Automatic annotation (TrEMBL), chain A:
<dbReference type="GO" id="GO:0000466">
    <property type="term" value="P:maturation of 5.8S rRNA from tricistronic rRNA transcript (SSU-rRNA, 5.8S rRNA, LSU-rRNA)"/>
</dbReference>
<comment type="function">
    <text>Component of the PeBoW complex, which is required for maturation of 28S and 5.8S ribosomal RNAs and formation of the 60S ribosome.</text>
</comment>
<dbReference type="InterPro" id="IPR020472">
    <property type="entry name" value="WD40_PAC1"/>
</dbReference>
<dbReference type="GO" id="GO:0005730">
    <property type="term" value="C:nucleolus"/>
</dbReference>
<protein>
    <recommendedName>
        <fullName>Ribosome biogenesis protein WDR12</fullName>
    </recommendedName>
</protein>
<keyword id="KW-0853">WD repeat</keyword>
<keyword id="KW-0677">Repeat</keyword>
<keyword id="KW-0539">Nucleus</keyword>
<feature type="repeat" description="WD">
    <location>
        <begin position="185"/>
        <end position="217"/>
    </location>
</feature>
TrEMBL record, chain B:
<dbReference type="InterPro" id="IPR012953">
    <property type="entry name" value="BOP1_N_dom"/>
</dbReference>
<dbReference type="Pfam" id="PF00400">
    <property type="entry name" value="WD40"/>
</dbReference>
<keyword id="KW-0677">Repeat</keyword>
<dbReference type="GO" id="GO:0005654">
    <property type="term" value="C:nucleoplasm"/>
</dbReference>
<dbReference type="GO" id="GO:0005694">
    <property type="term" value="C:chromosome"/>
</dbReference>
<comment type="subunit">
    <text>Component of the PeBoW complex, composed of BOP1, PES1 and WDR12. The complex is held together by BOP1, which interacts with PES1 via its N-terminal domain and with WDR12 via a high-affinity interaction between the seven-bladed beta-propeller domains of the 2 proteins. The NOP7 complex associates with the 66S pre-ribosome. The PeBoW complex associates with DDX27, BOP1 interacts directly with DDX27.</text>
</comment>
<dbReference type="InterPro" id="IPR001680">
    <property type="entry name" value="WD40_rpt"/>
</dbReference>
<dbReference type="GO" id="GO:0030687">
    <property type="term" value="C:preribosome, large subunit precursor"/>
</dbReference>
<dbReference type="Pfam" id="PF08145">
    <property type="entry name" value="BOP1NT"/>
</dbReference>
Length: 389, 826
């Protein structure tokens, strides 16, 4: 049996082995190598628990037998191969199941609480243990998106966007466990599908079905903004039962020709919006100008930006997750296309800590964690077959 | 004293000889006498028998010689000239030519007149004329001498060229009295000529005794008729005529008595009678017979050319070469230099080299191939015979010889099946080959082959079957179009008959047999609302006007106008306001239907108005502006189609007469046309003019559904016999294309609003999406390419897809099926 000389390396000092070439069987797979490392580690210290490792050769994950991988990648088997190993991400097991009465449209978690938007026109705050802490009712339609604005020990600010064309800015008093609608942001003429708060926590933007992108102030005030309402508009019934003070947008960015499905702040001054008109547009939040447009050929459902790798990831209605470079100019190329979902990719999210990882949810009821370090066979680290209808 | 002696050289030569001796002009030169005096007369007379003229080799000199001779009878000669001129006209041409020359020479010199001469440019005439006086007074010697001396000094270009006719008249060479006379007279015929000859002869005869000094000259003799004399002698005395006093009687007597009377002639010059001698008479006789005067002359002697064809060793002349023959010609030099100059200047182009490639032309280039000659092009060559191979050899290589088994097999084969119709055989030599017994047979077969060879050329069209298939673009190039099922909208418990998408594309309404209308959020498949309507929903239609939020639902006998309260609050609020703002007209109009405002309970569910018909409804469709809608009643009466106006709550029946079972109706998206599909036809009505515009033949048995291209010029019809007919309204009333892609009845067809797509749903559970590109160019026909078969619906009760509808903005198609689901394909 052919042998290869390999040198193992890791960035995690906990699992470091000595830097000497090892002779490993050429046909060994990830599990064999993992055994080998574990043996080495066990020989070094007695208190070693078995850890599954993943192996990278020249930045690519090893998914096939070692020699096959090297043949495919045209790596010489004569020389010493440097193999990097990382701790394997194991598929998480659902610890708690929080049951809603209706569809959950959005979820946002902090260190203490989980905020969800629900199709039963409410938003809820849950503890990490899955205990319902607060139900925020006030919208007259489905809550499409929620976001935390500010978290203090005493009170938290949060926003909820709804299909009733309003965004409500709530103040949640943690101690008293009471919510109060501070502001009712009105101005959209369609269901507000997405909100995003900027890094300074003073502004947020919202994307709506009415093709508009609006920027609002997230700072609670006591004055009510003047509604520039036309005189001939019908008298609104909601006016009387409206929650909070009316707030009007700071800016309205129009440019999309179809509904905006997802917005985010990629920077303090940059807004990124994905739309049904097959484009992702980058806006300057200060001037309200359009900075650049990334054009795809399918409806975008979701977009996410990673400040670590400075890439945009988009989920669209054609099963693919595409990575974009937002700094390139118009007509920029798709850097990478991740394909293994079988339904629409409805949401993507970059890992806030790892520059190569992103997670995606799809209509095929599977959540996938991806590592963007290229590999021909599979970039999916794990699949979470979580939901069932 | 200078003298010119003419030597009697020729005398020794035989007369009539045509061979001239080499030129020996034998005369003695002495300095020219000045002043010249004529020689004494007696001497002249004494030379009577002497030849007076020196012979020259040239006829010109010779002619001059004759002149000199003629001098002696100048007066007579002039007469001769006169006479002969008249007679010449009747002579043969050749004779006339030579005669003329002689006469001219004679007459000229003799008479001193300027006669035309044929001696080149030699001015003999003038010569003669100038010295005529001298000649008259001087002797013939002097004249001849002068003439000869002149001749000798003058270059005679004509010397070498002698007319052959002249050569043929050599007898003049000799100086003989008779000969001269003969030569002069020989050409004359007739009595007058004879008389002239006689004159000469008489003169000649009298030469010795008569005074020849009578020099009256060449004057008419009748001038002396009345005088007793003729002329004067040298002393100035009259020369008297002989006394003639004979009367008629004397003449008669003399005639009777004188035996020589017949040979006696009178000399006109002298008036004397002359008796002709026997020789003279003989001469006259011969002349009268047309014979030559000289008895010894043979005119038929063989001619000998002066220049022979044989190359001679000596030059013809020994004249030294001219100076110009060895000095370069100045003229030529000038000419050459001019040419060289012209060539240098380019005035003269070098001669183009002649193209030696032969030029051909196509004789049949312009020939009509259909003409009778054209068939030669269709010439069918005779079938070729197989060339003999090694088998046919008398001594074939051994591998060609049949083995025993092969021979056996050959014999057992049918003659037609044999590869060879003979057995190759080996012979020792060609001589040993026997006669071929099948020769006649094979010739006969060959003749049969030729005879039965098909002479008709079969025009076989070589068509690649691939070429017959229309070149359709690949579906991959026609994206986007829906390819996969993306969402399933579950909720209905029975078959979903109808679908409609809101103009914004956010909501989907579906009507089902379970008696509910459901409103879905398109992007999440969330059922937002469920509206129980208490009956089978046959048709549902979202108002196409984006500012109105209203859905028309066909439930049994009524149309419900439902405000789903979805989307923009302002919009659906405004819609409610518009509906509420209706003011009923003062007088009640008779309407085929009843407009009923919804009760508050219905209002809370969303129903705003109910249009109650008398019979069950089949279909409802909106006009593009969103105010009018049309309904189809499942009835066979004339009340099948009704058009309603929402804002005025008013309905009308546009058709007085039923034209068949109406399947569906549609409003034209742009123009005021109204499409009514019956079982077999689609009628297009102009609503403004209220007339039938077109009648489209669907070419199918039962139209089920119809859709209009958003541009309005193309219509598709689905039929229950699983056909889809595409009509180009500008093209024809018959289908432009009939697509048979479905295996079962088509239930629904739909066009996309923006993308060049159309879809058809069928009972076989599939939705077929086709690319249907309509070009603005009227000349270009629509391009129809089926691009995708979408499956997903399960067959329930033998029904598959019941309705298809496109998303208004995305290339997505919704289909509702009998399995109670609505599916979205993207």
């Amino acid at each position: 049996m052919a042998q290869l000389t390999a040198r193992f390396r890791t960035e995690n000092p906990r699992y470091a082995v000595e830097d000497v070439p090892f002779s490993v069987p050429a046909a060994s797979e990830t599990a064999d190598l993992s055994h080998l490392i574990n043996k080495l580690l066990a020989a070094r210290g007695a208190d070693h628990k078995y850890v599954e490792f993943d192996f990278l050769i020249q930045g690519q994950f090893l998914r096939v037998p070692l020699v096959t991988h090297m043949e495919m990648e045209n790596i010489s088997t004569e020389e010493v191969v440097e193999i990097e190993y990382v701790e394997k991400y194991m598929a998480p097991q659902p610890e708690e199941c929080i049951f809603h009465d209706d569809w959950i449209s959005s979820v946002q978690a902090t260190e203490e609480w989980i905020l969800t938007g629900c199709y039963d026109q409410t938003a809820r705050i849950w503890s990490l243990e899955g205990k319902s802490i607060m139900t925020i009712a006030g919208h007259t339609e489905v809550v499409k998106d929620v976001a935390w604005v500010k978290q203090d020990s005493l009170s938290c600010l949060l926003i909820s966007a709804s299909m009733d064309q309003t965004i409500l800015l709530w103040e949640w008093n943690v101690e008293k466990n009471k919510v109060k609608a501070l502001h009712c942001c009105r101005g959209h003429a369609g269901s507000v599908d997405s909100v995003a708060v900027d890094c300074t926590r003073t502004k947020f933007c919202s994307g709506s079905w009415d093709k508009m992108l609006k920027i609002w102030s997230a700072v609670p005030t006591d004055e009510e903004d003047e509604m520039e309402e036309a005189a001939n508009r019908p008298r609104k019934k909601q006016k009387t039962e409206q929650l909070g003070l009316t707030r009007t947008p700071l800016a309205t960015l129009s440019g999309h020709t179809e509904a905006i499905s997802s917005v985010l702040w990629s920077d303090a001054e940059e807004i990124c919006s994905a739309s049904w008109d097959h484009t992702i547009k980058l806006w300057d939040a200060e001037t309200g100008g359009l900075k650049s447009t990334l054009t795809g050929n399918k409806v975008f459902n979701s977009v996410s930006y990673s400040p670590l790798c400075r890439r945009l990831a988009s989920g669209s209605t054609d099963r693919h997750i595409r990575l974009w470079d937002p700094r390139s100019k118009d007509g920029s190329l798709v850097l990478l296309s991740l394909t293994s979902h079988t339904g629409w990719v409805t949401s993507v999210k970059w890992s806030p800590t790892h520059e190569h990882q992103l997670i995606s949810g799809s209509l095929d009821n599977i959540v996938k964690l991806w590592d963007t370090r290229r590999c021909r066979q599979q970039t999916v680290l794990l699949q979470i077959p979580s939901h069932s209808l | 004293m200078p003298k010119l002696w003419l030597l009697p050289y020729f005398h020794t030569q035989p007369l009539g000889s045509t061979t001239f001796p080499s030129p020996t002009l034998a005369f003695c030169h002495s300095p020219m006498p000045k002043p010249w005096t004529p020689p004494p007369a007696p001497r002249r007379t004494a030379t009577h028998q002497l030849p007076l003229v020196a012979e020259a080799e040239s006829a010109d000199l010779f002619g001059l010689g004759v002149l000199g001779v003629a001098w002696r009878g100048a007066a007579a000669s002039s007469a001769v000239v006169e006479e002969s001129r008249a007679g010449v006209a009747r002579l043969p041409v050749a004779a006339r030519l030579s005669h003329q020359q002689h006469v001219a020479q004679v007459g000229d010199v003799a008479g001193g007149q300027a006669q035309r001469l044929d001696l080149g440019q030699l001015p003999i005439g003038r010569l003669g004329g100038d010295e005529g006086a001298q000649r008259r007074e001087g002797g013939v010697d002097a004249v001849g001498a002068v003439a000869l001396s002149r001749v000798g000094r003058v270059p005679l270009p004509g010397l070498a060229v002698q007319p052959p006719g002249f050569l043929a008249a050599p007898p003049l060479a000799g100086f003989d009295a008779e000969a001269v006379g003969v030569q002069v007279e020989g050409l004359l015929v007739g009595a007058r000529a004879l008389a002239a000859v006689l004159l000469v002869l008489r003169q000649h005869a009298d030469l010795g005794v008569q005074d020849i000094r009578n020099t009256v000259g060449n004057i008419p003799m009748e001038w002396y008729q009345d005088f007793p004399h003729i002329g004067y002698d040298l002393e100035g005395k009259r020369i008297y005529k002989p006394i003639r006093n004979k009367d008629e009687l004397d003449k008669f007597l003399e005639k009777m008595e004188n035996p020589d009377y017949w040979r006696t002639v009178q000399d006109k010059m002298t008036g004397a009678d002359i008796k002709l001698t026997d020789e003279q008479v003989d001469l006259v006789h011969r002349l009268q017979k047309g014979q030559f005067g000289d008895v010894h002359f043979n005119p038929y002697e063989p001619a000998i050319d002066f220049f022979t064809h044989e190359v001679m060793i000596h030059p013809v002349t020994n004249r030294p070469a001219d100076k110009r023959s060895f000095i370069p010609s100045l003229i030529e030099k000038e000419k050459v230099s001019k040419l060289v100059h012209a060539i240098k200047m380019g005035w003269i182009k070098p001669r183009k080299p002649k193209e030696d490639t032969p030029t051909y032309y196509d004789l049949w280039a312009h020939e009509d191939p259909n003409s009778i000659l054209g068939r030669h092009k269709m010439h069918v060559p005779a079938p070729k015979m197989k060339l003999p191979g090694h088998e046919e050899s008398y001594n074939p290589p051994p591998e060609y010889l049949l083995s025993e088994e092969e021979k056996l097999a050959w014999e057992q084969q049918e003659p037609a099946e044999r590869r060879l119709n003979f057995v190759p055989q080996q012979y020792r030599c060609l001589r040993a080959v026997p006669g071929y017994p099948r020769f006649i047979h094979e010739r006969f077969e060959r003749c049969l082959d030729l005879y039965l060879c098909p002479r008709q050329r079969k025009m076989r069209v070589n068509v690649d079957p691939e070429d017959l298939i229309p070149k359709l673009p690949k579906p991959r190039d026609l994206q986007p179009f829906p390819t996969t099922q993306a969402l399933v909208y579950r909720g209905h418990s029975s078959l979903v008959r109808c679908l409609s998408v809101s103009p914004s594309g956010q909501w989907l309404a579906s009507g089902s047999d379970d008696g509910t209308v459901r409103f879905w959020e398109v992007c999440t498949a969330r059922c937002m609302k469920t509206l129980p309507v208490g009956g089978v929903v046959k048709s549902i239609a979202w108002n196409p006007n984006p500012t109105i939020c209203l859905v028309a639902v066909c439930v049994e006998q009524s149309v419900l106008l439902v405000n789903p309260c979805l989307g923009d609050k302002l919009l659906y609020g405004a819609t409610d306001q518009v509906l509420e703002s209706y003011v009923p007209p003062e007088e009640e109009r008779v309407q085929p239907v009843q407009w009923v405002t919804a009760t508050s309970e219905e209002h809370s569910r969303g129903i705003r108005l109910t249009v109650q018909h008398s019979k069950a409804l089949k279909q409802v469709t909106w006009h593009g502006k969103g105010d009018y809608f049309a309904t189809v009643v499942a009835d066979n009466s004339n009340m099948q189609v009704l058009i309603h106006q929402t804002s005025k709550r008013w309905s009308q029946n546009p058709f007085r007469k039923s034209k068949g079972l109406v399947q569906c109706v549609l409003f034209h998206p742009i123009r005021p046309y109204f499409f009514v599909a019956t079982q077999r036809y689609v009628r297009v009505y102009n609503l403004l003019k209220q007339e039938l515009t077109k009648k489209l033949m669907a070419n199918c048995k039962w139209v089920s559904s119809m859709a209009i291209h958003p541009a309005g010029d193309n219509v598709i019809c689905g039929s229950y016999d699983s056909k889809l007919a595409w009509f180009d309204l500008d093209l024809s009333t018959r289908p432009y294309q009939l697509l048979r892609h479905h295996r079962k009845a088509l239930r629904s067809v739909a066009f996309h609003k923006h993308y060049p797509l159309f879809a058809s749903g069928s009972d076989d559970g599939t939705v077929i999406v086709c690319h249907g590109m309509v070009y603005n160019d009227l000349l270009q026909n629509p391009l129809l390419v089926p691009v995708k078969v979408l499956k997903g619906h399960t067959l329930t009760m033998d029904l598959g897809v019941l309705d298809v509808v496109f998303h208004p903005t995305q290339p997505w198609v919704f289909s509702s099926g009998a399995d109670g689901t609505v599916r979205l394909y993207t």
